[in-house]
Amino acid sequence: MAPLIVGHSTKLAQTGNRDGMKPRDSALLHRVIYQTPPNVVDASGNYLLLDTGQRILDAAGGAAVVSIGHGNRHVKEAIIAQLNQVAFCYGFGSSGSERLARLLIETTKGRMSKAFIVSSGVSNESGYSWCLNEAHSRRFPMTKGSEAMESAMKMARQYFLEISPPQQSRTRFIARKESYHGNTLGALAMSGHVVRRQLYEPMLTDNISHVSACNAYRGMLPGETVSTYVDRLAQELENEFQRVGPEIVCAFVAEPVVGAALGCVPSVKGYFRAMKAVCDRHGALLIFDEVMCGIGRTGTLHAWEQEGVVPDIQTIGKGLGGGYVPVAGILINRRVVDALTAGTGSFVHGQTYQGHPVACAAAAAVLSIITETSMMANVNGMSRLLFSLLNQRLGKHPNVGDIRGRGLFVGIEFVQDKATKKPFDPKAKVAAAIQSKGHEPGYEISLYPGNGTVDGRAGDHILLAPPYNITREDVEEMVERTARVIFAVLKT
Predict the structure, then answer these.
(1) Closest CA to 486 of 403, 419, 407, 405
(2) What is the pTM of this model?
(3) C-alpha atoms less than 13 angstroms from C-alpha of 31 in its C-beta half-sphere
(4) pLDDT tens digits along 18-43
(5) Which of 3, 338, 405, 409 is 20 to 30 A from residue 290's alpha carbon, by CA?
(6) What is the pLDDT of residues 139-170, one digit of tens each?
(7) Strand residue runs (E) in 278-357
(8) E strands present in 226-380
């Protein structure tokens, strides 16, 4: 077992230690108040140039946001063109939002919201109920993933009020432990991440419960097969339906590949088919959170394409805007839209910047680049190379417990003891130390840290989520820098 080397980077990661830290003058309230990060003064491709002169390799795309690299000329031109047409409108549609909606539905090959749409185009007198109209989009654009999850929750609830006969008792949701669905109160209540919930626990709704995540590395029992593991998790979900009352559950909510909370953990084969069977048995909806793992990140445009099931509602974000604009949304399948259309004909929900023309135009440009080039082939090819090189460089490191993921969505979990999978003490802040070390001169790589991997409190991991157009040379450089950072913090 290799000891954690507590050095400069570990001290930086301990947010309670103010010794010697004097922030630059800033009017912004940064996440750590007494630390002011350097400013980015230029960005191109996979690199960020800081005002310190450092050139940082953006290996995580921020938080799995940057999908086509920084500084793309076509996206910037699309933004300017939309600005020249109209920057903002309320109660009307725009060419940008219409084009994005069509592109998104086309990527599902008709499996999501084939006939009817949820539009940001027309508001009623109250300003919060949005009409269903075939002339408009079949998605509901927002600005971030948390808002997408809030909208998905409302859509699921309204579905059961619109069907005939209405099922007004359906007010509960079942999600998974070690999950993260957003930082607004509803989305945070849906999340199972203990530490992120802790401060706000008394404010969170109590009509959401959580079952085990599908995490083969930590969840499978000795001697257990994939099939029996899936059966056990399906029975756990069934038991939870029965515990709370199957007639009051709106939906089961899950990430096809768990991102921030677990570090890019995909489900095992057959898992989501089994979960959907439980939902179908009780008439509940299936909601997939693809804010982090969707829009090509895992090697297909939608992560559910690899699971053999189609969700009733899907949240999207992050890679959709590629970092050029804040944008997110939900995709809705036919039966949900049909129910609303046959009922009130509206979605009782709305936001001021919903379907923002410039955000939608930028996202449409990003999505066009992803779909009209060979980016998915590159994601899958570079994924194989990335996993191969990571296993070569880090597979035998005594503190690297697992290297997992799908596509260009890769997690590395750190352990104190490889044989027992014992995590580090949370006080050591291993993942934060690795992130901080990466920012130092000589390393210059941006990695996404995560904690609570084991139980919401203990456990450390980092995420790698580079752009889809990354090259072989980029992958080799990213692996080399990542390995040097890990060996510097966790010396063997």
Answers:
(1) 403
(2) 0.91
(3) 4
(4) 555 455 678 888 888 878 889 999 99
(5) 338
(6) 445 447 888 999 999 999 999 999 999 999 99
(7) 285-290, 313-316, 328-332, 346-348
(8) 249-254, 257-258, 265-266, 285-290, 313-316, 328-332, 346-348
